[in-house]
Amino acid sequence: MRKMAVLVVGIVFMMATVTWANNTDAPEKTDFPTGEYAPGELLVKYKPALRTAAALFYEKQYNILTIDSFNTIGVDHIKLSGTMAVPEALKIFRNDPNIDYVEPNYYHYATATPNDPLFSQLWGMQKIRAPEAWDTTTGNLAVVIAVIDSGVRWSHPDLRANMWKNSGEIPGNGIDDDMNGFVDDIVGWDFAYNDNNPNDDNGHGTHVAGTIAAVGNNSVGVTGVLWNAKIMALRFIDDSRFGTTANAIKAILYANRNGAQIQNLSWGGGGYSQALKDAIDASSAVFVAASGNGGDNNDITPHYPSGYTSSNLIAVAATGPNDNLASFSNFGLTSVDVAAPGVNIYSPIPGGYGNKSGTSMAAPHVSGLAGLIVANRGGLSISSENTIMAASDVIQIIKDTVDPVASLTGRIATGGRINAFEALKSADSKGGGCFIATAAFGSILEPHVQILRHFRDKYLKTNGPGKAFVKLYYTYSPPLAKVIKENSGLRWATRITLFPMIGMSWMALTFGALSSMLALSLLSILGIVVFLKIRRDQL
Length: 539
Ligand SMILES: [Ca+2]
Ligand SMILES: [Ca+2]
Ligand SMILES: [Ca+2]
Ligand SMILES: [Ca+2]
Fold this sequence. Notes:
alpha/beta, Alpha-Beta Plaits, binds calcium ion
């Protein structure tokens, strides 16, 4: 009975909002400003000869206030009366022949660039559009990335603040306080020499760590793809620059156990090791592996670990500033996934900074990007549940959003170089607390949820009210996603409601849509949100 009542409330709500949408005198599409703008404000250019008279007319007729006058360009910055909205005012002004032009007072956002003095040397960051991605997130300290390498100069001034710290361990007391099998392991472990100091003298691991997450915006040196993150230093390469499979496995198992969400493998060589692959397969982390520097086709001459077919592993080739495949870079149409900058990469080394080239330098750009995607999830750890992104989802996003590059066509699987900006944009729209995706997961609807995403991108994210709605949705959706995940009845109820929504969105996208149709679709979503919220409160 209560169920029925809630359903009725939900339907009435939806109908009420539809009515409201129909009553609203929606402006014509051409008049409707896209993007975000200051509410109640316009920039207007009256015909020069009529400026004073026209301004006076509008002040009297519409209670408009002139805030500022830019006389050199003849433009006035005006404030509308409290009852008039920007689209409505635009319509009136644009029909007035005494006005040259009128436009919303748009908001602009600075693309985040860090204050690190040597930032300009990092061509790779620009290439992968990291500065634009940084408008969304610059990382956070919940993202843990294991650098399995020659160690990390963890005392480096541009790394120190971003080193992982084992919070369960009391330093220097000779006791394995957190009982993880390692005594006084604070920033990681040295598996090459079996001690608690994974310091790097070689420089390779330090350089890799710096590209992933040198401290950003600290007025020192450079920045990593992540400004903030936690680097877990796991050394297994010894002073003679070799590391064994056994020690690599130990490092991976340590990282698995201690919560690394991403593991960077900028090394390779040796044959196929089932044990090493098993250690990777046993992990929920994203593995990023360098494709190797022999200039070889890995499809013909296999390279490991980059060549393992694990779903949570991504293999990375290196490109230069002109997006050419680096001469040294291995490639492979089936065995190498993406490319990233790997020529003359500037990053911390012991005692300062230096340039290095290699697929070893390309992989950490991808690890950093994986970190940004994880950070954008609010630092949630990765799990295989669809409500939270799985490692394979992170990899799929990175692969789906590459910039296609001629030199990579037919040489690596995606034929492209990573694009951090596009990846974050895409990640924003996938899974992770989206109750619609959660409900559709595992059903025939799953592949069609994409239609709703297209609808959202085309009709909602392109205007102020739509954006506000999307934001609202992503604020209230995660708890609902959680409920839906645990309640199969609700999951099915949501799926049934999704059918017409997806259908309508598809029609809107295919045929173009009447504003009422759009309103109906998006308000249906709102109706479901309310319906499910009420339902949840009853549980
Ligand atoms: Ca310990
Ligand atoms: Ca201890
Ligand atoms: Ca050591
Ligand atoms: Ca820095």
